[in-house]
Specification:
- The chain has helices at residues 32-35, 118-122, 181-185; strands at residues 3-4, 10-12, 24-26, 58-59, 64-67, 71-74, 79-86, 92-99, 101-103, 109-111, 131-134, 137-140, 144-152, 161-171, 179-180, 197-198, 203-212, 217-228, 234-244, 248-256, 264-271, 277-283, 298-305, 313-320.
- By secondary structure, the chain is mainly beta.
- Residues 1-43 have low confidence and may be disordered.
Length: 322
Amino acid sequence: MEFLKTDTAIRVRGNYRSAGFMLGLAVWALPAAALGQQAQPEQQPPAAAPGQAPEGSVGGMGDVNLYPKRVVLTDRDRTATIGLYNRADATGDYDITITDMTMLPDGRLVDLGTVNDPAVKARVKTATSLLRWSPHRVTLPANEAQLVRIMVRVPPDLPPGEYRSHFSAIAVPPQTGGISIEQATGNAPAGSGVGVTIMPRFGIAIPIIVRVGDTTLTSGLKDIQVARTAAGEPVVRLVVTRAGTRSSFGNIAVTSAGSKKPIAEIKGIGVYPEIDQRSVQIPIDQKADPALYARGAKLTVTYTDDDFAPGQTLAKEDFVVP
């Protein structure tokens, strides 16, 4: 499997199909005894409109959507539910796992098991040992949904801070229907023979963040510049900085004097605690007047919280295009 970069979800390469339908919701929950406490009523993922997953959900290149796009638990709010939505027109089986990843300074998320640098590994505070979830595998009929329940157990001696792992829903490939390498390359020999079958697994993952005690965060913006990609498309490049014991997560908007709406914006930019800064590239609106970001133009870049205190300004910087 190959994970694609995103802050709210990690997508696995595959084919994407759409279908028109009204999602049904199959609700599952752990019994109170399994939780070691009284069952608490919880908010259900919203119903989806025909042909759509719920607003606020995330989808990969496969046929499953997850809601919400990220989960934040605390030592007080210890349970959550995640909705899996099968957008395919056929029944699918999905393995539910918790994995550990680390963020790189360019924003990519990589499997922590592939990291060889001990110093990099040591900076990641994983939540795997704190989390329980059920079921571990679900079978979803076509166009239906199911809830998976997550619970965190925080040891009394756990140091304050932010811990994180990633909830993954991975499609279980069918027993038949794969193709051999020879068939894929068009070199299949005549008659029967032994071959290797390609069985891709598609899926998606979202972060599960556990915050213990008081956490702190200071965000900043630096190295702002207007540039062009190799294809000649205008972009704003910048670096988001972070300090403290908590990750940042929010939306970035670039405004220009003389324009009522942003000339560039991007949502869901996070910087996890294992890194101190992250580079970001934001495409400039193709409809924006080039004079708004030409030499001498005054730009304002605003990073707005969409996590701990939604709507609060995390960082703001003015910039004059040189």
